[in-house]
Amino acid sequence: MSDNIELKVVNPRGDIEPPPIFAPAPRLGDLAGKKVALVHNMKSGADTFLDAVEELLHTKYPTVEFVKGYTTTINLAKEPEFYDDVARSCDAFVFGSGD
Fold this sequence. Notes:
The structure is a single chain. The chain is an alpha/beta fold. It is built from 2 helices and 3 strands. The chain has a domain at 35-96. Helix content is 25%, strand content 17%. Helix 1 (46-60) links the parallel strand 1 and strand 2 (65-70).
């Protein structure tokens, strides 16, 4: 009788493609006169955090224009139109997550 047992381990989810990788946008030299999107995920405290970010940035860069918005996900693939609109209409983007 042989004591050798052979097992094959498989992933029940199959082959998983990695998500696409995006290079970050180049940094802005200055925020003066720029439009900054402040977006949060509607979780508790996220809007308060972004209010503080807005106040700090406005103190340092008084000519910054802020655009506020929210989304229910940070997954770019789930709401591509939302993030495309933000990218087209703003120079910078800050995402705040609560909890």
